[in-house]
Design goal:
By secondary structure, this protein is of the alpha/beta class. Helix content is 39%, strand content 20%. A seven-stranded mixed sheet has the order 14-17-18-13-12-19-20, sandwiched between helices. A five-stranded parallel sheet has the order 9-8-7-10-11, sandwiched between helices. It has a three-stranded antiparallel sheet with strand order 5-6-21. Helix 7 links the parallel strand 8 and strand 9.
């Protein structure tokens, strides 16, 4: 059945309250943050502006609920998390609508990608609960030592605005599966789906206080959460600058474990032994401009062998022309709005720096649909980019692609590794020896080969260098939210 998203948008009731100990509530001091729509610039709602006292209340609730949740039989936690996933599925249209209202992405992508990934994430970790075993150590015959995995207690989660629902699920699901309770601080730019998610968890039968959501600014609610002495682990996705602050807050408080999943400036290396350049252009543009380029793993640097560069660039421009930008509730729009006016101007400032530094803009790079009141940008491609330019070194977080030419394999690897980031990378080559050789030399958490963005819940996501130490997804995520305990028994 065709969904009338505009009608649903008119009828939906937006909730901007915190969710603490199973109840919606305002901030203690009554303060709020006003939010505008990225789609048309209109006022959406005033949502709660959490501060230290609100974080304290949420941590109290999580701390009190920890004994209940952690002592449930694993089979019971599994049952509740599966029920939670089912209720999310039953409310997927509303959640997709909230996601698009919050950050402007096409609603069909919110529904087909974000919601399906979120539901699958909770089901995956629910099913893992009763399949994780402890260990027995190979000790001498007069002793017996075994190792168990235990929950840490209260987990803090701070998530970004670009994939609010997915990022929350990636951290919340494994933390809950192990037996922890959680306080979530969503971005002040996109709080709506986290609030709804917490309410649905309550409907699913998850005990009060297990999942709490405090809205607000990073320098207020986020800082209070990161400094809190009863928060044992903090999972963060966001910028390098904030990730460094959170590490400092850990040292200033209780030395909580911090798992940072930070930015990226990912490179794809296109070698001249891969001959289907149309496939390459389609893959690069699809990944780069998805979500309006607001993805930390976007392949924002194309490193291409100079003898095929002109042909590939021509195809990249052709593919970019196919991206329709506009109303994210319209079925024919591939790109929606960027998250807000501030971020739009941030992206435009990088485009201007590309011009000033001598790069050549081949297509796009301008604000459009200004009559709508929303924040829409044309996807842009810059050619003749060099690694000393800002657009080649810094994370833009928008639909801006830079093309850099290379002569040799060694030069390509050097160029790829010459930023502070190391989140993802890509290789396009039909030489299997080259693929293995180059993949091992690239400084990245994930290396894609002859595709980009291949992904599912079973593989870890995270980076190296200043892309952080976090690892979302896969069974490895359970390690981040648990402690190993050794129990040693002497046998007489």
């Amino acid at each position: 059945m065709l969904i009338n998203w505009h009608q649903l948008r008119k009828n939906i009731q937006l909730n901007g309250q915190h969710f603490i100990n199973g109840k919606s509530c305002d901030s203690h001091d009554g303060s709020t943050i006003s939010k505008k729509s990225p789609i048309d610039g209109s006022w959406l709602l005033d949502f709660a502006r959490g501060k230290k006292s609100d974080i304290d209340s949420a941590v109290d609730a999580a701390d009190n609920a920890f004994q209940i949740w952690s002592n449930l039989q694993p089979s019971k936690r599994k049952e509740l998390l599966l029920n939670f996933a089912n209720i999310i599925e039953q409310n997927k249209e509303e959640l997709a609508l909230l996601e698009t209202i919050d950050m402007g992405k096409p609603v069909q992508e919110s529904l087909s990608v974000d919601l399906n990934a979120t539901i699958n994430c909770f089901r995956y970790y629910a099913e893992a609960i009763d399949k994780i075993y402890g260990e027995v150590a190979p000790t001498a015959n007069n002793s017996f030592a075994y190792i168990v995995r235990e929950p840490v207690g209260v987990v803090g989660v701070i998530v970004p605005w670009n994939y609010p629902l997915i990022m929350t699920a990636w951290k919340l699901a494994p933390a809950l599966a192990v037996g922890n309770t959680v306080v979530v601080k969503p971005s002040e730019r996109s709080p709506l789906t986290a609030i709804k998610l917490a309410k649905l968890a309550s409907e699913a039968g998850i005990p009060d206080g297990v999942i709490n959501v405090v809205c607000g600014y990073g320098h207020e609610a986020g800082e209070a959460l990161a400094l809190h002495d009863r928060v044992r682990v903090l999972g963060f996705t966001g910028s390098v600058a904030v990730g460094k602050k959170i590490l400092a807050y850990s040292s200033q408080s209780n030395l909580k474990h911090v798992y940072n999943e930070l930015g990226g400036k990912s490179a794809v290396l296109v070698f001249n032994d891969y001959h289907d350049l149309d496939n390459i252009a389609r893959g690069i543009c699809g990944s780069m401009f998805y979500n309006q380029g607001q993805s930390c793993n976007a392949p924002s640097r194309v490193l291409v062998s100079e003898d095929i560069a002109d042909e590939l660039i021509q195809l990249l421009v052709q593919k970019t022309k196919q991206f329709k930008v506009g109303d994210p509730f319209s079925a024919d729009k591939v790109l929606g709005a960027v998250v807000d006016e501030k971020h739009m101007n941030h992206i435009l400032s990088y485009i201007e720096s590309g011009y000033k530094d001598g790069a050549k803009c081949l297509i796009g790079g301008k604000q459009i649909n200004q009559e709508s009141g929303g924040y829409y940008l044309e996807p842009a491609i810059f050619d003749h980019v060099t690694m000393d330019m800002k657009i080649a070194q810094e994370e833009i977080f928008g639909p801006v692609l830079s093309v850099i030419r290379f002569k040799t394999e060694e030069e390509a690897i050097k160029l790829a590794n010459s930023t502070e980031f190391g989140l993802q990378a890509g290789i396009w080559s039909n030489d299997i020896n080259r693929v293995h050789r180059v993949a091992r030399k690239l400084q990245a958490g994930t290396v894609h080969v002859n595709q980009y963005d291949g992904d599912n819940i079973t593989v870890p996501f995270g980076g190296v260098k200043q892309s952080g130490n976090g690892r979302d997804k896969s069974l490895h995520a359970l390690d981040k939210y648990s402690e190993l305990k050794t129990i040693w028994i002497q046998i007489d």
